[in-house]
Amino acid sequence: MTRTGSQVRGSIKPGQEIWVRGDSRGAHTTLVFPDGMTNHGVLRLRSADGGYVSSVSVPSGGMFNAADGQLLVEAGAAGPRTLAGPLVNEGWVSINWPATLVFAGATHVNRGEFDVMPGMALGISGQGQTFRQEAGRIRFDGGADLTGIVFDWVGGTLVGSPLLDGVDLRVAPGVTQPFSLSLIRSSSQFTGELKTGQTLWVRGDSRGYHMMLGLPDDFSDAGLLLLESRDGGYQSGVRVGSGNLTVQPGGILRAGVGAGGPRPIDAALLNRGRVEANLSVTLGRAGLKHRNEGEFVVAPGAALGFSGTGQTFEQAGGFLQIDGSATLRDQTFRYLGGLVKGQIYMANDTLEFGPGAGPSGTFLTGGSGMRLSGRIPSGATVIVQGSSDAYHTLEVAPNGLGIDGVLQLVSRDGGYNSALRVDGAPLAIGVGGLLQFSAGSGGPRSVTGEVRSAGKIRADFSATLGQAATPVLSTGEIAVAAGVTLTLPGGVQAGGGRIEGAGAIVGSVLGNATVAPGPGLAVLSVNGDFVQGAQGTLEFEIGGKTPGTGYDQLVLTRPAQLAGTVRLVLANGFVPSAGDRFQLVSGPPASTIGTRFELPKLPAGLSWNIGVAGGLAFSVEAAQPAAGQFVGRVSDGDGHPVPGVTVQASQTTPYGLRAQLWNNATLSGTPLVERFDAQIDNNWGGGVPDAGIPADNFSVRWTGFVVPRFTETYAFHTISDDGVRLWI
Known about the structure:
Elements: E1 17-20, E2 29-32, E3 37-39, E4 42-45, E5 54-57, E6 63-65, E7 70-73, E8 82-84, E9 87-89, E10 92-95, E11 99-101, E12 107-110, E13 113-116, E14 121-125, E15 130-133, E16 137-140, E17 143-147, E18 150-153, E19 157-160, E20 163-165, E21 168-171, E22 179-184, E23 189-191, E24 198-203, E25 211-215, E26 219-221, E27 224-227, E28 236-247, E29 252-255, E30 264-271, E31 274-277, E32 281-283, E33 289-292, E34 295-298, E35 303-306, E36 312-315, E37 319-322, E38 325-329, E39 332-335, E40 339-347, E41 350-353, E42 362-366, E43 371-373, E44 375-376, E45 381-386, E46 393-397, E47 401-403, E48 406-411, E49 418-422, E50 427-429, E51 434-437, E52 445-448, E53 451-453, E54 456-459, E55 463-465, E56 472-474, E57 477-480, E58 485-487, E59 492-494, E60 498-501, E61 504-506, E62 509-511, E63 514-517, E64 523-527, E65 530-532, E66 537-542, E67 553-556, E68 561-562, E69 565-570, E70 581-586, E71 596-599, E72 606-611, E73 615-622, E74 633-635, E75 646-649, E76 657-662, E77 673-677, E78 699-703
Parallel strand pairs: 1-4, 2-5, 3-6, 4-7, 5-8, 6-9, 7-10, 8-11, 9-12, 10-13, 11-14, 12-15, 13-16, 14-17, 15-18, 16-19, 17-20, 18-21, 20-22, 21-23, 22-24, 24-27, 25-28, 26-28, 27-29, 28-30, 29-31, 30-32, 30-33, 31-34, 32-35, 33-36, 34-37, 35-38, 36-39, 37-40, 38-40, 39-41, 40-42, 41-43, ...
Antiparallel strand pairs: 70-73, 72-73, 76-77, 76-78
C-alpha cells in the first residue's frame, strides 16, 4: 500500500501481508489503522525507491502484534520509519532500519521477540511514553535512543546497551539477568537494585551534561554502579534521599576516570563489597553516617572528600586504602576494625580508636577543634600538626588517650603551635608505644596532663610534657636529642627504664631508671632535683679526656643523691693513664653517692680515685692493688673519705649477697663488717662470723638479688637455731 491517506480496517490474518511502501508513485506513505490493528501475519514497512517515508499510524485502539505476527521495519530505498501508536508485541518485531516509536501517553509492551538489528537504532522520545519489557526478549544489537520516557523492566530478557537519556528506569525485583545500561541527564531516575552481573553506568557527557542520578531509598548494589564521564569533564554522581547506599559483598561502586569531572556520592554509604575511587570523590552531605566493612580504595592521584559537616565515617572491617589522599573537616572518624592503609588528613574533627582498630594507618590531624579518644593501636600513627591550614593547634583528649603506636607532634609551616591536652584520664603510653616531639618548621610543642609511660618518649624538638605537681610516671625510655630541652613541670618519677640524651631536662628526675648521656659520647643536663633510687643506675662511657666528645657528662644544678649504681664503660678502645680525670657529674657536690660502683679494669699499677668535688669525678692514680682487692679512695672535695660505698671492679662479678655484720643483736648503728657472701650456709657453733665480731650478741643482714635460671615457681626456706626474718 502506498500514498498517505490509505487506511486499513480489521486485522491481518495468518498468511496475510501488508507492505507499507513509500515510493515515487505514492510518495511519502503513512498507513492508518483507524480502529486499531491486530497482526497475525506480516506488516512490512519498506520504501521502494527514493528514500520515502514508510510508516503506520494507529490513532485509536493501539497496535497488537500477536504471537504469530511479524512487524518488519526494513531499509528498502531508505527514508523515515515511524510507528505512531501504542504497541503491544507478543510476536516478532524486527527493526532492520532506524525507526521511531511514538504516541503521546502510550505504554508500549513487549512479551515476544523485539530485535534492533546491528547498525540500526530504535528511538522513543518523550510525550509521556512508557516502554514495558514484560516477557520474551528485547535485543539491542544495534542501538536504542530512549529519551524522556519510562522504561519499565518487569521480566524477560534484555540484550545490549541502549542509551537512556532522561529516562525513569525501573527494574523489578524479579529481574536477575546480567545487563549493562547507561543513564545520562540529571532528569533520569532509577528504581530497583543492582544484582550480581548487572551494570549501571551513570554518565555525564556533552549530550546530557552534568549527571546526578536519583536512586531509591536504601539502594542495594550487588553488581557494578559506575560513575564516569564520557567527555567534557562532566559530573557523574548519585543521590540517595533516605537510608543507605549499600554495596553488597561482591558488589562494586566505581568512580571511574573517564573524561574527568566531579564524582559526588550524595548518600549514606555502607560498603560491604568494594568501593573504587579512581577519580576524586565527594561523599555524603551534612549529618550522614558512612561505614566500611569491605574494600575501599582511593587510587593514586585521587582524593576522598566529604560534602557537608557533622558526618561520621566508621572503618569497621576490611580495609580503607588511601593511595591518593583523604581529607575530613569537621567530621568524625571511628577506627573500629579492619585496616587503614595510607594517610588521612583531619582538621577540627573527632578521631576515635576502638579496641578492634587495626595495626596500620597514619592520621595527620590539626586545628583546635580536634578531639582524640581511645587507644592508638600498634602500627598506627597520629600526627598533631600546626600548619597554615589548621593554624595553631591545641587538640584535646577529653577522656584520656592510650598509645600503643605513635603520637607525633610537629608543625608543617610557619612555626605554628602543635599541642595536646589530656583530660579526665592519663596519657598512657604502652610498651612499644612512642610519644615523639619533632621539629617540622618550629613553634611550641606541648602535651599537658597526667602521663604514664611504659613505652618511649622522644624529644627531637624542645617541648613541655606533663603538668605541675604531677610527675611523669615512666618505666620505659625517655630520650632528649642534642640541643633540645624537655620541660617536665611535675618532673619524672622513674620506676625503671632508661633516661638518655644529649640535651636538657628541666624538672626533677627521681627514681630507679638507668640514666645515661648519649647515645654516643654526650652531655646531658638536668635542671632540677636528681634523686637516684637504690635500683637506679648512672651509666657513663669514657673514650677520651674532653666532656661531651671524649666522655659522657651529666650536668646538674642541684646536689645529686645517688643511692644506686654508678657504672663506667670504656669506649672506642680508650685506655686511661695515670693523672687522667673525668668530671662525670658536673654541679654541686653530690650529697649522697651510690652504694655501688662498677668500674672497668685499669692497666697494672693504676687504680680509680672517686671524689664528689664539683659533682662526681673519677681520676686515675698510680697504685699497686693486692691480689683480689681494689685499691683507691672515695673522697669528698676536701679529700675526706666518704663511707658506705662498695666499689666493684667490672672484671669480677660479685655473685652472692651483700652481708652487713653488727656487734649487737638489733641490726642498728654502723655495721662493723661489710662483704659479699657467695652462699649463705654457716655453722658457726662457738666460733664467730668474722674476726672483729664477738661470739655472742651479734646480728647479720644479707641483701641483694636472685636471678632465676628458669621461668617456674620457686620456694625460699630458712633453717636456723635463732630468730630469722626472710623478706622478698
